[in-house]
Design goal:
With about 400 residues, the chain is mainly alpha-helical. About 65% of the residues lie in helices and about 5% in strands. Among the domains are: about 195-275, no CATH class; about 290-395, no CATH class. The chain has helices at about 5-30, 40-60, 65-80, 85-100, 110-125, 135-155, 160-190, 190-220, 255-275, 315-330, 340-345, 355-370, 375-395, and strands at about 280-290, 295-300. Strands 1-2 form a two-stranded antiparallel sheet. The chain is globular.
């Protein structure tokens, strides 16, 4: 990809991370019955990104944050944040800008999975409060933006064949259409869905209450101090006793915590069903080196539930370093075409011939498995790949 294309995808992904951050801090205002400060948050984050980026792009060093973070903290304070929250927000944004400028390849699908989990937990946790729909709005909005970023990254990749691009783009647009239809149905049927979920919660609370009756009765038999609801001080039935209480008085049970338990169980069931599902899926839009020297989209049979979160890079260090170099060159517009050998691919790259020869020779040893690669050769191979990246960046 060209430099401006890299900048666009980085800023897009960074914006999705900031949307997740905003979702995380919303409950702080829900607890205080306040509206989330959208404008101060957006201004602080945009100011931080615009201010950080030129310095981080030049130095790519954590030490520069010691100077820049306090400045953005002052911006946050001027917009109404307290000093602690403003400092944390400035530090988080600096860390993410630094991360994206160190040639990392973040996974937007993994970011959405985190957003989905947080959004569902918050929605269930604040189910009986007004304004809870904002968690669903942000989660669905994040999903559509994630698909948009995936399509943009795919269209920018020069190493993808045109037919493969069109195929994957059509699949992504189909997902957007399907989710859009389901979302519209969910909005139209929201009153019914609300009543169903509310009934389930009520039934769960009643069930837990009935299951707890034997334990309350057992406590009365062993003379544990169980007191009724006191309207004067608002203490619950398990509060500390300050006098004599009659266990025959009706006790009021405070079972609000069961809402959280029911919500957590529901989310765990959904995640278990998601991770338990097996099948062939198309991995994120990256390229992989196949055994027949072709470049093709990588497909993988999911057998381990945790494999969604694993990298698709080869385990062998020599292959993995070439794999990373291939992704880096694809972003620079020097991607490897289908059915193109390493030698033909390197012949088009404008770097030192000696460096290209070291990479080709070392990789052939691993590719055909006829020789061992010593530790000195691995170190030299690693150094040469870093030098190739450095030369291409300086062009």
């Amino acid at each position: 990809m060209k430099q401006w294309q890299i900048n666009v995808t980085r800023f897009f992904h960074l914006s999705l991370e900031m949307l997740l951050l905003f979702l995380i801090i919303i409950p702080l205002y829900f607890i205080e019955n306040q509206s989330p400060p959208i404008f101060p948050f957006v201004v602080t984050v945009l100011t931080a990104i615009i201010f950080y980026d030129p310095f981080v792009r030049k130095y790519k060093n954590e030490k520069i944050g010691l100077i820049l973070v306090p400045i953005i903290t002052l911006v946050g304070i001027s917009l109404g944040y307290n000093i602690g929250f403003a400092f944390i927000l400035a530090a988080i944004v600096f860390g993410r800008v630094l991360f994206h400028n160190k040639d990392h390849d973040p996974n937007e699908i993994g970011l959405f999975i985190v957003t989905f989990i947080v959004g569902v937990i918050y929605f269930l946790g604040f189910f009986f409060m007004e304004g809870r729909e904002i968690f669903l709005y942000i989660t669905f909005g994040h999903f559509f933006l994630t698909l948009t970023l995936t399509v943009i990254k795919l269209s920018f990749q020069s190493s993808k064949a045109l037919g493969d691009k069109y195929t994957i783009i059509k699949w992504q647009l189909g997902k957007v259409l399907a989710i859009g239809i389901l979302t519209s149905l969910g909005i139209l049927l929201y009153p019914i869905i609300y009543k169903v979920v509310y009934t389930i919660f009520q039934g769960s609370i009643l069930l837990f209450g009935l299951l707890g009756i034997p334990f309350v009765y057992l406590a009365s038999l062993i003379n544990l101090e169980v007191r009724p609801q006191n309207p004067d001080d608002g203490t619950g039935m398990l509060g500390a006793a300050t006098g004599d209480y009659d266990l025959t008085e009706p006790a009021t049970y405070n079972l609000d915590f069961l809402i959280w338990i029911a919500g957590a169980i529901f989310v765990l069931i959904i995640l278990f069903l998601m991770l338990r599902k097996n099948g062939s899926i198309m991995l994120r839009s990256e390229v992989a080196i196949s055994d027949d020297y072709e470049l093709s989209p990588a497909k993988k049979k999911i057998t381990d539930p945790h494999s969604w979160f694993k990298r698709t890079a080869p385990k062998n260090e020599i292959r993995r370093l070439l794999y990373d170099l291939e992704k880096f060159l694809a972003k620079q517009g020097e991607g490897r075409m289908p059915n193109e050998t390493v030698e033909d691919w390197f012949s088009k790259i404008n770097v030192s011939t000696d460096l290209k020869e070291v990479v080709s020779t070392t990789y052939r040893k691993v590719r055909y498995g006829d020789k061992e690669v010593t530790k000195q050769e691995r170190d030299e191979y690693r150094r040469v790949i870093k030098e190739i990246k450095k030369q291409l960046k300086n062009q």
